[in-house]
Amino acid sequence: MIIMNERTLAFIKQAFKEYYFKNAEKIIAPIRIKEREFGYISFDKIMIRHLSFQNEGDLRAFFIKEIPRSIYYSCAYYYEPTLTMDKKGWNGADLIFDIDADHIPTKCKKEHDYWICKDCNLIDKGKRPDKCPKCEGMRIDKENWVCHSCLEATKDEVIKLIDFLLEDFSISRENCKIHFSGSRGYHVTVEQSDLEELDQLARNEISDYISGIGLSLESLGISKRVSYEKMHRILPLATEFGWRGRIGKFFSEMDFDNYGNNDIRDKIIFFHDKMKYKNFDNFIREIVEKLSVKIDAMVTTDIHRIFRLPNTLHGSTGMIKKSCKDLLSFNPLIDAVVLSEEPLKIFVDHSPIFTLNGNLFGPYKSEIVNLPIMTAVYLIGKGVAEVY
Amino acid sequence: MEIEFGLEDLAKYPFLKEAGDYVKELNLSVDNLCQEDYRPAVERAKQRVIEAIQKNYISSETSEPIVELLSFPLALILVRAINVEYIIHRYSLAESIRSERFLKKEKKSIISYIFKSTFNVELISLQHELFDFKINLSEYLKRATYFHQPEWKLINRIVENGFVYLKTFELVRLIREEIRRMIYERMKSASLPSMPKYLKETLDEISKVLPTIPVDKIHRVAPENFPPCIIHMLNLLKKGQNVSHYGRFLLTTYLLSIGKTVEDIIDTYPKSPDFNERMTRYQVEHIAGMRGGRRRYKVPSCRTIATHSLCFKDKNLCAKLRSPLQFSKKPSFHKKSNTNS
Question: Contacts of residue B280 in chain A, CB cutoff 8 Å?
């Protein structure tokens, strides 16, 4: 990993400054701005928290004056956002979900993810080993990259999440804000719903519901102690709501040989009988795994967390946290790229092949290259390049 | 929706505002209630309190609704006069269980009315084979997270369009804690009237059945025999100093292992202004294996404790120990204790 030198840091700051000078009007205040806590990371790498803004104008003026490297706002609403945490006075929080490409197993990872031994600097692709094969050191860093394929897999999770929010929790589509995070995933923010008053424990339940954690076979009507005849009456159907409906639908859509009957309950009993309870239990767990959403539970249950402000630059990629009006057609590696295409000479230590704004770059290995500013900032942010 | 409650209904649910209003309109003082005519109400109040103390149960007597209704505020006065926190808790719980019993068999319209008027929760009645009501998701979650059994987990409920489906008995169980808290608060906030002689005598009779609260009965290790790491944590807490996350984990696993209850452990933590009982309870219950993955966590080994810089080893007493649990079992320890005694 390249430690950013002063020249490189000054370049990044200049690139951010130019962007914010030209695009200050694109910075939009979150709703109830006065009740939010703001925090930012400066180009001196200092985190400053407990800030508050009265209106959008003040917020935009702050960008021009400070040029933050990253800026965040609280999901929570406070009576006094500038006071210390214990004195702020919590008054509800948006319900936020974070879906990150890192949490979704995809085949492309072995093509673009690296691990680096901090002791001998050995770099290789693929899964991070427990110890370095060369020096046997245990201090091994991961360096994850993203590609269209893993970001599409992340998007599929967002689509599943929206279904849960709309169908099960009755959240209106307008109150579900979807943003590309500016780096490796998506944030889904639920605003103006009665869920905003829920505490951490209640959010834990919401998180478990969406992640498929803790589903009992009994809730599906499957029990060791009950006869098939009785079970048949209480097994899920595809027309039901919630998890029962999801499982019912899965069985109704499942094709398999040796079975001509289309009755879902018959199908479930057939499988249960064939597999016996324990294997059937595992089978249901696999189905749940498939139908659940890979959200980051830590994020959803944290009622004081701060999140990157939409339409602002991600300090480590130079892309923006971008609202996805039409999720299906949204392409983060094009739509969230905003910095200039002017060329700049940089030294790149290493990188896999990657795309940005529709162009293919890399792979690079200890070389000096002329790259557009947007790409230079992306590589510098990753810690693999510096201004030459 | 307005519902006209009969006297019998008010006797079943004496915590309702309507029941309070009814009694108020009778304009009876405590002195009046101790007159001959109302003695059955005082007797029933005494019975309520004694049943609660002895059996954690209050019988469902409704043959004379007015006696039943009047006995409730009298019982509150008696419990308030005893003024023992444990008894106030126990009584409010027993009263809430009594009301729960009636509510389980109640007409849907009355249940809906009570939920709306008393707890501001809107219920929607269902014509469904298995479920009787649906309740708003957020109202459900605010209450259901107090329960540990898997069936209360949101994922094991039917959730549709922002509503959770419930059977009557489940719905009533969900609200019981609020009824308890309501009765508890009422006793705590009420000022005690001057007690007529008859009521004082009744109080004396109740005092005879008051239990001696069991202290440390099941705890196999007395606090003075705790290992040094645990004593250190307890001292820090006593002084109001911060104990690290891992320190709290160590303390909780240790106390659970020697037979302390979740309640005992919550009481161990000081009630600082930012103390969150609900969160502490959640964490303690999680460690006790009552939540989440249902795994009961073991006391960390001495080596792990040392890794977290929480070992305050006593060279003699801790020598060669692998777990803090071995501390009080160690022969040298007993030798020392014996010599001291």
Answer: none
CA–CA gap between residue B68 and residue B40 (Å, rounded): 9
Contact yes or no for B279 and A213 at CB 8 A: no
Whether residue B151 and residue A86 make contact (CB cut-off 8 A), yes or no, is no
3 state DSSP class of A306: strand
CA distance A155 to A336: 14
- From A216's Cα to the closest Cα of chain B, the distance in A is 6
ipTM: 0.92
pLDDT profile of chain B (341 residues), mean per 10: 83 94 91 88 94 89 87 94 85 94 94 93 92 96 87 95 96 92 90 88 88 50 84 82 83 88 81 68 85 78 78 78 79 43 29
Which of the residues A193, A218, A219, A293 would you substitute to probe the B interface, choosing the one with the greatest number of B C-beta atoms within 10 Å? A219
A335 is catalytic: no
CA distance A56 to A67: 16
SS3 A182: coil
Range A120-124, long-range pairs (CB < 8 A, 24+ positions): A123/A350
- Note if A100 is an active site residue: yes
Whether pTM exceeds 0.90: no
Which residue's structure tokens are 């006793």? B187
Q: Which residues of A touch B279 (CB under 8 A)?
A: 200-201
Q: What is the pLDDT of residue B125?
A: 95
Least reliable range by pLDDT among A52-56, A153-157, B231-235, B287-291:
B287-291
In order of A92, A117, A204, B100, B215, the CA distances from A199 in angstroms are 8, 41, 9, 26, 35
Indicate yes or no: CB of B155 within 8 angstroms of CB of A198.
Answer: no
Q: Which pairing describes strands A76-78 and A359-361: parallel, antiparallel, or unpaired?
A: unpaired
In A, residues 102-141, which contact B (CB 8 Å cutoff)? none
Measured in whole angstroms, the distance separating CA B138 from the mean position of its chain's CA atoms is 23
What is the interface size between A and B, counted as CB pairs within 8 Å?
A: 82
Select from A205, A218, A240 the Cβ nearest to the Cβ of B154: A205
A98 is catalytic: yes
A202 and chain B in contact, CB less than 8 A: yes
Task: Name the residue among B144, B156, B161 with its Cβ closest to that of A216.
Answer: B156
* Ranges of H-type helices in chain B: 7-12, 17-26, 30-33, 39-55, 65-82, 85-104, 108-119, 137-144, 168-189, 197-209, 228-238, 245-257, 262-268, 277-287, 302-307, 331-340
Nearest residue, CB atoms, B154 vs list A209, A240, A241 = A209
Structure tokens at A191: 């605003």
> Does residue B125 come out as left (phi exceeding 0), alpha (psi in the -120 to 50 range) or beta?
beta
Beta partners for residue A187, in sequence order: A98, A179
